[in-house]
Every structure is written in structure tokens, then in C-alpha cells.
Amino acid sequence: MHDFKKLNIWKRGVDLVTEIYQITSQYPESEKFGLINQIRRCSVSVPSNIAEGSGRKSDKEFRQFLSIAMGSLCELETQLVISKNLNFINSEQKEVITSEIHEIQKMIRVFGESLESKSLNTNI
Fold first, then answer.
1. How distant, in Å, are the alpha carbons of 110, 113, 117, 121 from that of 124?
2. How far apart are CA 17 and CA 58, in angstroms?
3. Which SUPFAM superfamilies does the UniProt entry name for this protein (predicted)?
4. pLDDT for the residue 34
5. Which of 42, 51, 83, 121 is 20 to 30 A off residue 31, Cα-Cα?
């Protein structure tokens, strides 16, 4: 088990959620139950799945939750493209958040690989 509050991937995920909430607060009111809700839910899913996975008994289970967090990041990136196409955000906002998404994805990938390596080394 891992203390998720000490994991940089969790901290960056929480920061991403905060940024997403700030940006989506500027979306049209008509999107309150549409794109705003969907974007916020998938962004919250990222640190939430990291936290939930950290409490699991095995690293294999943790990696599964990291995989779900990765999927949520891909979903978020897609929704940002749609937001940009609808002119809810500008190109700069999209690029800043997309860059952060890619950085968090890299961090999750590396962390997941380290969990897998650790698991393989204990089975030798």
C-alpha cells in the first residue's frame, strides 16, 4: 500500500482538477449538465483512481487503477478538443492543459512500470 498524498502523480492530478474547475466555470451555463459536468467528472477521476488504487492490497490492483486514470486523461483531452472547437476555450488554454495531461500520463506510465518491475523482482 502507498500513501497517495505523497505521490506526485496524485498531487499533479489534484492541481489539474483545480485548473479544470476554474476554466469550466467560464463555459456557457447551457453546458452545466453537458460538457462541464463530463469534463469535471473525468478530471476528478484521475486523482481519485490514483488514491483508490494506492489503498489496494497489491501493486497489480494499483496498476489497474492507474490504467483507469490514464483512460480518464485521454477522455479529458478529447473533451478539451471539443471545447476548443466550440470556442469555449482558446488555443492557449487547450495547449497548457493538454501539456499537463501529457506530463501526468508520462508520470503514471513510469510509476506503473516501477510497480511492475518491483512485482517482477519479488517473484524471482
1. 21, 17, 11, 5
2. 27
3. IVS-encoded protein-like
4. 94
5. 51
The model carries a pTM of: 0.91
Q: Within a 10 A sphere around the Cβ of 41, how many other Cβ atoms? A: 14
* Short-list 87, 74, 75, 78, CA closest to 27: 87
- Per the CB < 8 A criterion, the answer to whether 65 and 56 are in contact is yes
Tell me, rounded to whole angstroms, the distance of Cα 41 from its chain centroid. 10
Q: Locate cell 478538443: which residue?
A: 81
Question: Does the pLDDT of residue 120 top 70, yes or no?
Answer: no
Could you give the domains of the chain? Answer: 4-122 (1.20.1440.60)
Q: Cβ(89)–Cβ(23) under 8 Å?
A: yes
Three cell numbers written together for 22:
476554474
Report which residue type is found at 80.
L
User: What stretches of 2-100 adopt beta strand conformation (E)?
Assistant: none
